[in-house]
Amino acid sequence: MLTLVLPRLVSFEGTGRRAASVTERNISCLRSTYWVVMLSGFLEPVLYLFSIGIGVGGLIGDLRLPDGRLVGYAEFVAPAMLAAAAMTGALSETTFNFFGKMKFMRLYEGMLATPIRPIEIALGELAWAMVRGVLYSAAFLVIMVALDLTSPMRAAVMLPATILVGFAFGALGMATSTIIRSWQDFDLIASAQFALFLFSGTFVPPTAYPTVVRWLIEVTPLYRAVDLTRALSLGPVGALQLVDVLYLLTVLAIGLTVAGRRMGRMLCK
Amino acid sequence: MTPGAYVLEYHLVNYRRTWRASALSTLVMPLLTMLGFGVGVGAYVSGGVDGVPYLDWIVPGLIASTAVQAAIGEATWPVLSYFEWLKVYFAQAAAPLRVADILGGHLAFMLFRILLSATAFLGVAVLFGAVHSWWAPLTLIVALLVGFAVSAPTVAYSASISSDSYLAILMRFAILPMSLFSGVFFPIESLPLVLRWVAWALPLWHGVDLSRDAMLGLAPGWLGLWHVLYLLAWCALGWWLAHSRFRRRLVI
Amino acid sequence: MESLIHARGLVKRFGEFTAVDGIDVDVRRGEAFGFLGPNGAGKSSTMRMIGCVSPPSGGELRILGLDPRRDGPRIRSRLGVCPQLDNLDIELNVRENLTTYARFFGIPRKVARRRADELLDFVQLSERADSKVEPLSGGMKRRLTIARALVNEPEMVLLDEPTTGLDPQARHLVWERLFRLKQQGVTLVLTTHYMDEAEQLCDRLVVMDGGRIVAEGSPRALIEQYSTREVVELRFAAESQEAYAEKLAGLGDRLEVLPDRILLYVDDGDEAAAEVQGRSLAPASVLVRRSSLEDVFLHLTGRTLVD
């Protein structure tokens, strides 16, 4: 007689609920100061928008896009700041805070003594980072519309795009946090994040750089995110934006897999 | 040697262990800023500012801003940690040191870090061909002055809080806006009057203006004197505040 | 009787290092079981394997009749864990630490709140329910960690050195609470290197050393097997105790020379003490006491520091 041995699949039963309980924990620790810190994260891209976009923009005037159209410098910079806001929101929760909870507070050791699994912690924390990222992005979009830097319709389409950007960077940040060893490495992350922020076609079009540098820039995740939000804000939207979306989805999948796996290996020795 | 020098020595010995990690933020970040804004964005500022190319105009501001960043870096987390987590100040207070020695030694170390960052930046600026005046080295003195004017009150702030959440608040609500709206990237004349008053009130703009005079070889005039006096007032007030905060926590 | 923990030839390796080297353990429902051993004996590694957060490197392990490799979440939902170092959530207050933890088990909010209040009462922390965690004393934190381990009404509670670092009052309070749990039928599994703790709490225990089990039994049985009924501690005024050891030859079952005193393992302490006087040795002090688990422990694991 033939016996069929079915491979035992990884059970995802209860995963959603358990991941949600991790998110819930973060909501219960919202205290007065933490609220202010959280909201302050939104301030950063707004300040850059006003300082560089509008302040320095006053020195620059209009900017010619690769397709020949002239746009105001602030209009050019704003969608990039939006993508950067989504990145910052997601990264601050998944690098510094995540690492602190893992190494310093040993929070996850306590969680893992319950039915929760490492991948569920990763999902729960990522969901939380997203809540934060969406709040930042939505607020920034309101400002963009108020300053007439984009239309309400386009803003409505950009919101889901920023959620994707946030998810991708959140997963990337979490994977990075499982790889770094000490607090000192955060200097490295901060520098890398700042370099991305400066050179990802955020403040000048990538065509301004030498060809080699330009190709380098075009493969960074923030550039793809900026390309997506800028196309949605200024048009036109084409096949390249599909590439952006696929790229960000890939980053998300890889980041989450690495994070879940490395957490399992670190915490379940 | 005065007892304050022993405290400085402690910080220097410590620094020997950690300088590599901090070298990145002290050198690479300003370098990136110079490349990104000075060279990158600068290429689009076709007319220059005040009759000089954008890069030449922005570099002195970045030096003053770097001095402030270095000052903040040492006056925030380390101070909080020396009170709350590592308890270094309490250990020092158990030795025959006065509050002024403990505070002065650490501030002296901050000045050292400020000088290091500003000098490194000035060196990079020379390589980029953004330095044209023999008065340029004076910008290092300006860096020390504006650095102290920011670090002393920041030390007082860090000594008054118990959680690093308040440091994040300080960075986002005070330091970053100050760095972005103090005439480093664009002249404050284009700001609305209210924001211009904010820039005038905070120390960085005064440092930026002095630094720009030095780097571009302009005569600072009476405004320059006012800048210096105003920054000195910040230094004095900051020292007084920090000293009283330290005394309240170390001498019970 | 039902075995809640069933291990045969259980092994845990970290790279080259073997932390647990083939142990057999059976823990029955309702008993209090102890792992004794010096630091580095493999107690905590064993506990982590039992807690299903550390996959065994070899051998057989079944917890609550299930396989920890496959059914980790299901097993953990029925366990309570009190780790060696408190890992309470410092961003939450005392009550929230319990309610949030309960949510990790999928316990409804209302039930979680009720249970949190009951448990705070049980560990005598009701007055501190709204306090932050950080200002709590070591004993309070430990009691809160124990309460947290009970939030899912576990069938078995794992306690890794539950009273290490606590002051005497706090220790006795913890012991008393653990004893009450045992009376309620909860299975307790604990590690300790305090012998009085093991004698107070454990029905049965194993002594571990170098990743292996070197002895097993009830505290009483272990003392009978590895020590004598009584011990005489003699201190001589001279610099070296060594010189007196020869003169004591033939007294008792065994004699141990320490830098500051000599221990005589005997069945009748008073008789031995009289004999010492009879040999006209004049010790500066003589102490006759009952043999304890500590004697067994030191006999089995040696007196050298293994840290």
Automatic annotation (TrEMBL), chain A:
Keyword Chloroplast among UniProt keywords: no
Membrane topology: Multi-pass membrane protein
Localization of this protein: Cell membrane; Membrane
Main location: membrane
ABC transmembrane type-2 domain residues: 36-266
Alphabetical keyword list: Antibiotic resistance, Cell membrane, Membrane, Transmembrane, Transmembrane helix, Transport
Lineage: superkingdom: Bacteria
Membrane-spanning parts: 34-60, 80-100, 121-147, 153-173, 194-217, 237-259
Family: Belongs to the ABC-2 integral membrane protein family.
Designated name of the protein: Transport permease protein
Biological source species: Paractinoplanes globisporus
Taxonomic lineage of the native organism: Bacteria, Bacillati, Actinomycetota, Actinomycetes, Micromonosporales
Automatic annotation (TrEMBL), chain B:
Record's protein name: Transport permease protein
InterPro entries, alphabetized: ABC2_TM (IPR013525), ABC2_TM_bact-type (IPR047817), ABC_2_transport (IPR000412), Nod_factor_ABC_transporter (IPR051784)
Organism: Paractinoplanes globisporus
Record flagged with keyword Oxidoreductase: no
Annotated transmembrane regions: 21-45, 57-80, 107-128, 134-157, 222-242
UniProt family annotation: Belongs to the ABC-2 integral membrane protein family.
Chief subcellular location: membrane
Cellular location(s): Cell membrane; Membrane
Domain ABC transmembrane type-2 residue range list: 21-249
Membrane topology label: Multi-pass membrane protein
PANTHER family given in the database record: NODULATION PROTEIN J
A Pfam match: ABC2_membrane
Key words of the record: Antibiotic resistance, Cell membrane, Membrane, Transmembrane, Transmembrane helix, Transport
TrEMBL record, chain C:
GO molecular function terms noted in the UniProt entry: ATP binding
Family: Belongs to the ABC transporter superfamily.
Keyword annotations: Antibiotic resistance, ATP-binding, Nucleotide-binding, Transport
Protein name: ABC transporter ATP-binding protein
KW Transport (keyword) present: yes
Domain of life: Bacteria
Species assigned in the record: Paractinoplanes globisporus
Compartments, record wording: Cell membrane
Every ABC transporter domain range: 5-235
Membrane topology reported for the UniProt record: Peripheral membrane protein
InterPro entries: AAA+_ATPase, ABC_transporter-like_ATP-bd, ABC_transporter-like_CS, ABC_transporter_ATP-binding, P-loop_NTPase
Keyword Cytoplasm listed: no
